[in-house]
Task: structure prediction
Amino acid sequence: KEFVWFMSVGYGFAVMCIGAYLLILGLVKGYLTPARGVMAALFVVYGYRDSKNFWFHRKTRMRSELLAIRKQSLESVRYAADRADDKVKFTDDALETILNVPRVFLPLVLRGCVDWAKENNVTLVTAEHMKIINDKRAKEKNKQ
Result:
């Protein structure tokens, strides 16, 4: 068996916050000794993770892998749109209007588009339909 160990960003952030807390508390209360300062600094340094590297190791030494910064492609949005509903389909122009939607919100946006399409008996959503949906959403947003 082979295990791959990695450090999570949340864990690293928590450790870094503990170190910052110890450092600030020591400075404010006035009991910061060299040993406590080194310990607090080690917590901060150990807890720091930069967001563009994924740290892992297989055997003994940690190494970083550069994370690919993915831009959403039309194919990935098409895949999500095809899974949203089996009857309602989207044209490429329609999908290009939601290309910059964050990945985490894409299913919600697609579900809203599918609901609108079903209410209006539309089976193929085009860019013009997406403009209508966006206008409707903007009006609803201004009411609140």
Remarks:
- The longest strand covers residues 53-57.
- The two ends are 56 Å apart (CA to CA).
- Strands lie at 5-6, 53-57, 63-66, 89-90, 124-125.
- Residues 12 and 37 are 19 Å apart (CA to CA).
